[in-house]
Amino acid sequence: MTILVRKATIKDKFSSHYNQQLDVLISNSTIVEIAENIQTTADEVIEAENLFLSPGWVDIFVTGNDPGFEYKDDLTSTSYSAAKGGFTHVFLTPNTQPVVQNKSLVQYVTDKKTQYPVQLHPIGAITKNTDGKELTEMVDMKLAGAIAFGDGTKSIQSAGLLIKALQYVKAFDGIVIQIPDDQSVAPHGLMNEGIISTQIGLPGKPALAEEIMVARDIELARYTNSKLHITGITLAKSVDMIKKAKSEDLNITCSTSYHHLVFTENELLKGYSTNFKLNPPLRSENDRLALLEGVKDGTIDCVSSHHTPQNKDAKICEFEYAGYGVIGLQAAFGVMNSTGLEIDQILDAICFKPRQIFNLDSHIEVGSKVDLTLFDLSGSYVISKENLVSKSENSPYLGKTLTGKVIATLQQDKFYINA
């Protein structure tokens, strides 16, 4: 199959064609020509005004549901949600049933990689059943294709156990992904602790729960000299601590969710919408601005959707009993494009830095294998229940018009056009 991309501005800062508007010809999953005006007949032609082309986008933290929770999302719906959002690589947390904690369950995901328009990368559990007590066989999972290791949505509470895990993965240059949440601090907190939680009468989760864990994990990474990625940071203080750690050349990277770049705890003053019940919780406006600045100056390496499907029963209930999280793969680019971030800053956070950290190399050059996202910065679309690909509908973006539209993704021999 041949595909011709017409007059696309190439947004690959590592390419010799960076910021040039060119035609790109693809044949048999390989870029075979890049030129100003390619004259050929192709099986498929992609052209649009304001068309941009970058290496495929990467989401490093998507809640795994398959196997065990396929009624929320399965591998198929997750893959097509990701493709519609412009992603060609998605990291799946191990919080499935059974937990992704051995070679066979890693292979359950990786064996299906040819079926979908995105590459699904399992994150292997660090502890058996993600219960924080006993280490798994991470070497076996690494050899089977695990991209990184962590207990997913569960934070590892034992410092001693995390030290062992960091030392374990160092043997094969692995990476630990950890959410910073000291669960002994206000374990029943439902939102950010502060004036607003007091006003509306919901138990608060203090910033201290995150601060303690970020500080602790930085010291554990220092002690082991191993690679640690802290995901889901939400606080100005967390940004400051990680910035300082990076200045000391520690092997630490971090990410936040894009929901925390646009929403704050003030959303809950408008009503008890369970679509704003997140873990870690939405924080203050000062924290939101600090996160944005962290993305701009590079302290925050990646921005993830933290896509967390929940069925209706888990969200249409009292706030106290509602499940945590929102879906976010489809809306990711449009929402990030609304934050005031420049396109190069957005691409750093969802493309270049995650690729660099997790060794997913891809560049737009003749001879390169196809791994591409095509998008239009000015195109708009509305997120609605009718066009959601996810099996779940827990999105705070329903009914909103977003600017910044994905046109298509190309991943090896898989070609997905965003209708």
Question: What report would you give on this structure?
Answer:
It is a single chain. The chain has 419 residues and is of the alpha/beta class. The protein contains 12 helices and 18 strands. Helix 2 (103-110) links the parallel strand 7 (87-92) and strand 8 (119-124). It is globular and about 65 Å long. The model has no long low-confidence stretch (mean pLDDT 96).
Helical/strand content category: alpha/beta
For the largest beta-sheet, the strand count, sense and barrel status come to:
8 strands, mixed
The global form is globular
The oligomeric status of these chains comes to single chain
Distance N to C terminus: 20 Å
